Amino acid sequence: MKLPIVDHPTAAKPFVTNEDRSHWHDDALWFVRVKRDRQASSVPEWEYLRERASAIKTHTIANLGDYLEQFERNATARGATVHWAADAEEHNAIVLKILRQHGTERIVKSKSMLTEECGLNPYLEDNGIEVVDTDLGERIVQLREETPSHIVLPAIHIKKEEVGQTFHTHLGTDAGASDPQYLTEAARNHLRNKFLSGEVGITGVNFGIAETGGFVVCTNEGNADLGVSLPKVHIACMGIEKMIPSLADLSVFTRLLARSATGQPVTTYTSHFHGPKDDNSELHIVLVDNGRTRLRGNDTFRPAMHCIRCGACMNTCPVYRRSGGHSYRATVPGPIGSVLSPSRDAKSYKSLPYACSLCGSCSDVCPVKIPLHHQLLAWRGELVGNGLLPLSKRVAMKTASFLFQRPGLYRTAGSMGRTALRVLPHFVTHNRFNTWTKARELPKPPRESFRQWYIANRGNPQRRDSANGNATAHANTRSNGDAS
Amino acid sequence: MTVALFVPCYIDQFFPQVAVATLELLESLGLDVVFPDGQTCCGQPMANTGCNSDTAPVAQRFVDLFAGYDAVICPSGSCTAMVRHHYAEYFADDDPAFTSVRDRTFELCEYIHDMHGGRIPDVCFPHRVSVHQSCHGLRELGLGSQSERMTQRPDKVAAVLKQVQGIELMPLTRVDECCGFGGTFAVNEADVSAAMGRDRIADHSGSGSEVIVSADMSCLMHLQGILRRQQNRLQVMHVSEVLVGRELETTPLAAAQRS
Ligand code: SF4
């Protein structure tokens, strides 16, 4: 689905400046992060597991074609039908074709960020098919006609009172009710009817296993199992990066996934699917590229394909926690989204690599060791290289570089700047044109720089005449550096 | 042992007292300290914006200026991390001047802890202190254990500070969350940056601390700016100032003047 593109700071503003909401969101996600820390620390080999997971992914991505073919062979041998989709349109068309073949009017769908990425819901609805999301969070978001704000916790941005209001409108729950127990029960009853009347079940895929041709779906509500147990047709939509070589490898990932995602030791339901349920049933697996091969071809950003979509980088990201997921205007928000989105469309998402203080927390929390903050930094270099940095910032950096190469000029500019800050009235230096001073005071400028102090108290600094590494000390001789 | 002092641009211009404290501290450790003339900036602002072609000549100047010293010591984890981990992009792997500068550039506390047996002069600082771990110091230089990783590392800043007589280190709720400075991030994403800064300050204030101490003056510059806007009496000090025995301003007026 094409989302409106807005500059991140602008899109973040209403969320982050609503202090109550921003703090509430921050606390909710920090709580998850703390649970994750507790779980991770309970596994002595945690760092080893991350290392293994990263190595398995590197290997799989390097040999992706072979593993995909092996997967297709084995899945087909088990009776599944494997489809290949080059992009979102093709994916949607394949799904619709299968639905049409069965005269389907209503599907039940468990959570899948891939179908979100492909815009499957609106596409099917436009084609007259009713889509019911069965993940509770997704259902809430769906009823509100919003998009998920987080890849694991799609409705984390919505308060329980607001859920109560939504359910009151759509499901007829009591007005003003906000008790999570009551609301969950109401949703469960509502969804139960939907499950019973679903004609086709659609799920995402967490891991496809080349060795067996089977795949795994992890949920906490069991909705994936429910959604596919009654209908005769199950369509599994899978990004090609979800591949892993063997069942033994799976154990590494299942230990990391739930702990990283929600701080649980394991997801409540880890469902394995190997072929159709029975002779009367069909299993379709749609393998989707949609830009992944292009990402794979990029040496710098290829590790982003390791992502198992646990969401830990979002939970830990101080920018995400305070600005909310919608500020990214992308299917996948947060640090990994800021790496993935510009690889699809650098121009539209050019502000995302800058929506990051480069604190590095995401890289260290990531269970598959994607160097997220270094990739965001690399993205900035790409954007500048492609002329996508605004001119004002470009000029500022060019000027800074010019000054820093000319110590004499740098000192003059520094001294003028400090004097200006000292003598100008507060309202001149602190106004709306100076972004720094919107929420902060400028430092009080000292009369002398350190270098001036040094000359007054220690004599002249050491001058280095040759640029080839041979220092020549000229203690107490006059020196102005390379006066410019 | 001749060591070179690298004073980052913003410390040179805005916080000379931090460079003075660093110099005095290193001298009191018996080191022969030189301050190479012509130094300006490590190039981090440009590099973090992605302006690599603007960074290259600045990095080259830095390496030319600092090659050949036994060590280059810098009172900033962030600038040290720039040299150690991000200069590789601008030099050949086997450029001897580059590798020597890369391997011999140290953050102040790191130098004292790793290269100088962790000893500091006898000083007293009878105050409640909360330590702000800078992200680059923590995660790029490994100055302490970070909460995301399940590996233990010595906390070099705290280890050095703990030797100060009378000091009381106060615990934080979120031990190592980012303060929101992030270089040009503070201007680019002003609202988020300020929100992060206010939250950091609330954690430090809530710990009962009188002063936030950090090895990175850039984080402190941002936090101090917010503290002053809030008219908050919590103070900030660079770790070098504590280690040479500078006193905490105690009267509100003095505190206001100081900050
Ligand atoms: S990038 Fe890493 S932490 Fe973020 S969602 Fe993917 S696997 Fe999880």
Describe the structure.
- Chain A has 484 residues and is of the alpha/beta class.
- Helix content of chain A is 50%, strand content 10%.
- In chain A, the strands form 2 sheets. A 6-stranded parallel beta sheet of chain A has the order 1-10-7-4-2-3, sandwiched between helices. A 4-stranded mixed beta sheet of chain A has the order 8-5-6-9.
- In chain A, strand 5 (207-209) and strand 6 (214-219) form a beta hairpin.
- The longest helix of chain A has 23 residues, at 19-41.
- Chain B is α/β, with parallel strands linked by helices and 259 residues long.
- Chain B folds into 2 domains: 2-115, no CATH class; 122-244, Rossmann fold, CATH 3.40.50.
- Helices cover 49% and strands 11% of the residues of chain B.
- Chain B has helices spanning 9-14, 16-28, 44-49, 52-66, 77-86, 96-104, 108-115, 135-140, 156-161, 185-188, 190-206, 217-230, 239-243, 252-258, and strands at residues 2-5, 32-34, 71-74, 105-107, 128-132, 168-169, 211-214, 235-238.
- In chain B, helix 11 crosses helix 12.
- The radius of gyration of chain B is 18 Å and the shape is globular.
- The interface between A and B is large, with 92 and 83 residues.
- Iron/sulfur cluster (SF4) is lined by residues 260, 307-313, 336, 365-368, 370, 372 of chain A.
Order of strands across the main sheet of chain B:
2-1-3-4
Q: Mean of the pLDDT scores of chain B?
A: 95
Number of helices of chain A: 22
> How far is it from the N-terminal to the C-terminal residue of chain A, by CA?
55 Å
Separation of termini of chain B? Answer: 35 Å
CATH architectural group of the largest domain in chain B: 3-Layer(aba) Sandwich
Helix content of chain B: 40-55%
Question: In CATH's first tier, which class of the largest domain in chain B applies?
Answer: Alpha Beta
Question: How many domains is the backbone of chain B divided into?
Answer: 2
The number of helical segments of chain B is 14
Which stretches of chain B are low in confidence, meaning pLDDT under 50 for 5 or more residues running?
A: none
Major beta sheet summary of chain A = 6 strands, parallel
